[in-house]
Specification:
The complex is a heterodimer of chains A (165) and B (84). Chain A is an alpha+beta fold. Chain A has a domain at 2-116: Ribosomal Protein L22, Chain A, CATH 3.90.470.20. In chain A, 27% of the residues lie in helices and 39% in strands. In chain A, a hairpin with a 3-residue loop joins strand 4 (95-103) and strand 5 (107-113). In chain A, helix 3 (30-38) packs antiparallel against helix 4. Chain B has one domain (3-83): Non-ribosomal Peptide Synthetase Peptidyl Carrier Protein, Chain A (Orthogonal Bundle). Chain B contains 5 helices and no strands. The two termini of chain B are 12 Å apart. Chain B is an all-alpha fold. Classes of the chains: A alpha+beta (165), B mainly alpha (84). The A-B interface holds A 12, 15-17, 20-23, 26-27, 50, 54, 67-72, 136, 156 and B 35, 40-46, 48-49, 52, 61, 64-68.
Chain lengths: 165, 84
């Protein structure tokens, strides 16, 4: 299973005031709030952590079909930077998920997987051709009888990303 | 506060964050904040904070977890108001 999330930084700035009283407390754990306050650019850290939680929530939602709003139950851990990509883990209900985050001046994008080896298998799709949705969950199916592949679509402001396994 | 009053206040709260006007105009108890109104998931925090301010209640994490549609939001608001 896979999940992705993209944040258009200009739109996020317009839509959300992360400095609003109570905002950080509702969605980030104490440790995450510490990362934000220590960060060189706290705003980028807010959306970095948020995109990781969102991408992992999508994986969880596909696995369990459970919907809900529980950002505090997802905890971002172990940030490691390899070739300017941020690799991390997110823990949710004693399950561990892996995340890969790319940050540019315009957007932040996270891809989340259950199996760390799946990172190498992920492809980006150019459009929504052959993508079907079932209970709101998209999958890619080339021909009628072929096996469908998991897909995750994220769209925010100026940016859209579609990935598949 | 009756149900009608609560739903009217709730509509005013979510209005600035919705991205689907048609779903908002046809809002019912089964309307989903994200799937129907297309509220950005980061803005759902703002909806929750606005509810806390407007109704002068505190929404704990357990309640927040269920806060995905109008029906659950109404139930949570009613429960919290009755506990005041």
């Amino acid at each position: 299973m896979i999940g992705n999330d993209i944040v258009d930084l200009a739109l996020a700035r317009k839509e959300s005031n992360w400095k609003r009283k109570g905002f950080l407390d509702k969605i980030f754990t104490k440790n995450e709030q510490l990362l934000i306050s220590k960060a060189e650019d706290p705003e980028v850290m807010v959306w970095n952590l948020w995109s990781r939680k969102e991408a992992v929530y999508k994986v969880y939602n596909r696995q369990t079909q459970i919907r809900g709003y529980f950002p505090l139950q997802l905890e971002c851990l172990d940030l490691e930077i390899i070739d300017s990509l941020l690799f991390g883990k997110v823990i949710l209900k004693e399950r561990c998920y892996f995340t890969k985050t790319e940050i540019t001046t315009q957007w932040i994008n996270t891809i989340a997987v259950e199996n760390v080896l799946d990172f190498d298998m992920i492809k980006t799709l150019e459009n929504r051709k052959n993508i079907q949705k079932n209970n709101g969950i998209p999958s890619y199916c080339e021909k009628e009888n072929s096996i469908s592949k998991p897909v995750s679509i994220s769209h925010h402001g100026r940016f859209e990303q579609i990935i598949s396994l | 506060m009756d149900k009608q009053e609560i739903i009217e206040k709730l509509k005013n709260i979510v209005k600035p964050y919705i991205k689907n006007q048609e779903a908002f105009d046809n809002l019912t108890e089964s309307t989903d904040f994200i799937a129907d109104l297309q509220i950005n998931s980061a803005n759902l925090v703002d909806v929750i904070l606005d509810i806390e301010e407007e109704f002068e209640i505190v929404i704990d994490n357990e309640s927040m977890e269920r806060m995905v549609d109008v029906k659950s939001a109404m139930e949570i608001i009613e429960t919290k108001l009755s506990e005041k």
